[in-house]
């Protein structure tokens, strides 16, 4: 599995998750958008250029451009995990610790899912399911 953290999330968060996944079976790559592209690269440029079948972590709902972004994600076979709006109200360390708490469930879900969009709520529960976008 390959994960990309979108430009609207801090690169340090992506890199921390990458380190935590270094011995995780099946996780091949965890990068931040800025590791491959300029942070200002429009979504409609990086989405098809990235390659097939990535798992995207974002706070962006990809609703701009009259649905063209979502269509590009679908064509590329990417799966998108969107952090609920509550995530943006919290400081870096709290947001980071909450994502680490959610990460085992993200991995478990990603292993069973290819394509589509899912919402990661702020409130964590081990029994909570991801909602479709």
Q: Explain this structure to me?
A:
The chain has 4 helices and 6 strands. It is of the alpha/beta class and 133 residues long. The chain has one domain. It has a 6-stranded mixed sheet with strand order 2-1-3-4-5-6, with helices on one face.
Structure characteristics:
single chain, six-stranded mixed sheet, 6 strands, VapC45_PIN-like, VapC45 PIN like domain-containing protein
What's the topology here?
Elements: E1 2-5, H1 11-20, E2 29-32, H2 43-50, E3 55-58, H3 68-76, E4 79-83, H4 92-112, E5 116-120, E6 131-132
Parallel strand pairs: 1-2, 1-3, 3-4, 4-5
Antiparallel strand pairs: 5-6
Helix pairs in contact: 2-3
Concise description?
By secondary structure, the protein is of the alpha/beta class. It has 4 helices and 6 strands; from the N terminus they run E-H-E-H-E-H-E-H-E-E.
Most strands sheet: 6 strands, mixed
| End-to-end distance | 21 Å
Task: Give the helix/strand class.
Answer: alpha/beta
Beta-strand percentage range: 15-25%
Low-confidence stretches: none
Tally of alpha and pi helices: 4
- Please give the radius of gyration in angstroms: 14 Å
SSE succession = EHEHEHEHEE
Strand order, largest beta sheet:
2-1-3-4-5-6
Instruction: Determine the mean pLDDT.
Output: 91
Number of domains: 1
Principal-axis shape: globular
Protein name: VapC45 PIN like domain-containing protein
Pfam families: PIN_10
Organism: Ideonella aquatica
Domain VapC45 PIN like: 1-83
